[in-house]
Amino acid sequence: MIKKIHRSGKLACLQLITMLLLSNSSFAQRAKGIITGTVVTADNQPLAFATVMLKDTRYGTMAKEDGRFKFDAPAGNYTLIITYAGYITTQQSITVTSGQENNVRQITVKSAANQLREVVVADIQKNKFAKKPTTTPAKIPLADLENPQVYSMVTKEIMQEQLAVDFNTAVASVPGVVASNGVNDSGNDFTLRGFRSNATFRNGLVVDPRTQTEIVNIERVEVLKGPSATLYGGVMATYGGVINTITKRPFESFRGEVSYTTGSWGLNRFTADINTPLNKDRTALIRINTAAHTANSFQDAGFVRSLAFAASMSFKTSERTTVRFDADVYAPYKNLNAYVRSSDKLTVTSMKDLNLIHNRSFSSNDIGTKRSSVYAMAEIEHKISDQWISKTSYQHGESGENQSVFLVLSYVDDTHISRGIRPFDVYQLTTDNLQQNFIGDFKIGNVRNRLVAGLDYYGHVTNYQYGTFQTGTNPVTGNPVYSVFAPYDNVVLDDKTPWNPISRNQVDKLTRAFTTGIRNTYFTLSAYASDAVNITDYLVAVASLRVDRYENKKTLTNGVAGTDNYTQVQYSPKFGLVFQPIKNKVSLFGNYSNGFINVAPSVNAATGTISVWDPQQAYQTEGGIKLELFDGKLNSTLSYYDIKVKDMVRSLPDGTSVQDGTQKSKGFEAELIANPVTGLNLVLGYGYNDNKYTQYNAAYQDKRMPWTPENVFNAWASYKFLEGKVKGIGVGAGVNYAGKTYMEISNKFGVPAYTIFGATAFYDQPKYRIGIKVNNFTNEQYWNFYGQPQNPREVLGSISYKF
Fold first, then answer.
1. Residue 401: inside a domain, yes or no?
2. Cβ neighbours of residue 475 under 8 Å, at least 6 residues apart?
3. Which helix (H) or strand (E) holds 167?
4. Is residue 105 in some structural domain?
5. Among 4, 179, 197, 714, fewest CB within 10 Å belongs to which?
6. In angstroms, what CA-CA distances link 601 with 524, 566, 598, 613?
7. What are the Cα distances from residue 621, in Å, to 55, 480, 594, 616, 667?
């Protein structure tokens, strides 16, 4: 197929040369105008390298990788022709006006019935791991070089090449970022820019998952760096950034792929991705993704069994209106492991100094928990005019579990760990997010504006029920001592002393002192606007503002309403400036952005009065350079950031509190994505971070935040043969490094730095793909930031069939 494309490309070049030689010189001397636009496929993806020409003339060009094109032509009336191998030739009438830019906006081309964009483009595209054009980060059509905010993107191509079977592995190529299961095994945690974040956005709308994120339905992952509350709100957008997963959408051709992966410790994973039109004119489309996954732990206990199903439908009801529906269901069954607490009781300073048995589990296979996450989304996109689009989006989410059992570990001393149990009868999170966006691309005079104005409603309900246990008696007062953690037993940290497996039967017999049911509800109502103004063709200014009203309802405790309701209104500004000294190649950028956290009122321990607080604030100043050189074969971002947090509530020695706490986080990040020669692709990333509490309680003063490394580095290189008898054979290798992290605020005990190597080999053909991957090639013994042992050397094998 690639040879056909090459032949088509050669033919197009010969035609272009012939037209150049035969063109009428007087025709060429007429006053010219500029023709611009973008070529996309029916699934709204750019059609890189499509040929764009004026019929019966010598004037034309080839679309860039982002689908955009631009060329000069004399004034007059023409027919614009777009051609590409495997796609239906598209024609459009156009009038070129002398001395003006004639923008034909977006042109959609349809593929032939037996062709598919991924098959045609994948191997010949330049820099295939580079950021793809997307409107999500800025909510407006703003190219990376025009965007004053730094963001990274994980594409499905790199996920496939690295044989990722989980979300943490999938995002391992993001600079300055380390992902792991949540601190209490809920969701996915990200460490970035000195703060913890979570994967809490799906297609730009909020979710709050109790499960880890299943990757079978992910098209790409977007990681927006730094405070992003102006466009994404303050409830789920942390100071470190926003993690937004974009799900797969249907397209206009019938195609499918089934894949099976197996590997160490009983890994078996089956996935299927099937897409088909539902009618002859391809205005109704559906795409189904599903996964079945089973795996055991490398330790003597531990497992996961999961099923996932996702469906996405698209209906083009008119030339201007598209309606989309999609839903995800993910149901894992696994044992839950919380992080190890009370490390301040240890006399050693590092995990490696403890006599821990890496392949020995503190848990058992008898206390698995069934969880689920369900998301349903509907969206109506209507083209009001050539300049304005209306997008109405609604997403409902439910995530949680019944009868869950958390294993809670606490250090007793250097040689003992206490095992405790935290059971929940039910824990359910419900989210509803409704957004209305109006997106415009228009001119005021000669000044181009790209504007989004939106309204956002987000509602969140938490329902949970748990037991409390009597754990002893106060020796002074004689009063009982209660805890939500039920003591189970203590174990010795060696490989000679038996540990009794934790029994669900014994857990169910734990005697409760009482049971508590909680229902907490809050919602936000927000309005925001962001405008990118082309002051000149080389200078873009972005100004954004959000008004956010947060309301926390009275918490119901065992059916009785409390007095903890409160309301806060917050304004969140954002400003950015981009200067391109070399248009579409080099941009210098700077931004000033805001993040905030709503702070609940608190009772003053000294006076018994209620103190009302303002939202906590974070402000980032950032500057750097973005590069897109050598015809898109080298993409790079270098940036320096400084984040200041203020209005943190801290306790004083007299029992009162004051809202004057501060914190700083600053650092440097570098990203390089390159395609130096055909078939060779490189991804390099580095992040340095320095953070500390600059004014806080004595125990926190000048200390670094736990679980945040100072240095993070990642690299991945792959080469695929694209010609000859070895066509389709490829190899890849990479490394991930994370520096030492502290597990507690005193900064005395930490997790040592680690360096993990991986390698892969594959054979990729249009109809099938075979791959093998080795993770942790050097078999390094290491822990995540929460002190949990991680996999030793792991071998994976995969086979896929495409149709």
1. yes
2. none
3. helix 167-170
4. yes
5. 4
6. 17, 8, 10, 6
7. 50, 51, 9, 17, 11
For residues 723 and 784, membership in a common domain is answered with yes
Integer angstrom CA distances of residue 348 from 379, 413, 486: 55, 10, 27
For residues 38 and 92, the answer to whether their CB atoms sit within 8 Å is no
Place of tokens 């905010």: 149
Q: Please calculate the CA angle 154-155-159 and round it to the nearest 5 degrees.
A: 85
The CA distances from residue 388 to 55, 233, 443, 449, in Å, are 29, 24, 12, 11
603 assigned to some structural domain: yes
Provide the residue count of the chain: 803
**pLDDT at 173 > cutoff 80:** yes
CB 243 within 8 A of CB 200: yes
Residues 6+ apart with CB under 8 A from 66: 38, 46, 48, 132, 133, 143
pLDDT tens, 771-800? 999 999 999 999 999 999 999 999 999 999
Per the DSSP assignment, residues forming a β-bridge with 427 are 401, 464
Secondary-structure breakdown of the chain: helix, strand, coil percentages, each rounded to the nearest 5: 10, 55, 35
Q: For residues 173 and 192, what is the distance between their CA atoms, to the nearest angstrom?
A: 13
Q: Name the nearest CA neighbour of 542 among 19, 138, 74, 30.
A: 138
Structure-token match 């039920």, residue found: 486
The answer to the question of residue 126 being in a domain is no
Q: Does the pLDDT of residue 87 top 80, yes or no? A: no
Judgement on whether residues 288 and 305 belong to the same structural domain of the protein: yes
Per DSSP, what are the bridge partners of residue 36?
A: 70, 103
Question: Six-digit token pair at 482?
Answer: 């209660």
**Highest mean predicted confidence (pLDDT) among 77-91, 103-117, 762-776:** 762-776
Q: How far is CA 673 from CA 355, 549, 632, in A?
A: 42, 40, 10
Mean pLDDT for 350-355 is 91
For residue 169, give both structure tokens. Answer: 């592995």
At position 209, the amino acid (one-letter code) is P
Q: Is there a contact between 679 and 629 (Cβ–Cβ < 8 Å)?
A: no
Task: Quick: pLDDT tens for 16-32.
Answer: 444 434 443 333 445 78
Residue 401 pLDDT exceeds 90: yes
Taking the C-alpha atoms of residue 188 and residue 215, their distance in angstroms, rounded to an integer, is: 12
Query: What burial class does residue 733 get, using C-beta atoms within 10 Å of its C-beta: 0-12 exposed, 13-18 middle, 19+ buried?
Result: middle
Give the domain CATH number at 80: 2.60.40.1120
Residue-wise pLDDT tens digits, 321-346: 999 999 999 999 999 887 888 998 99
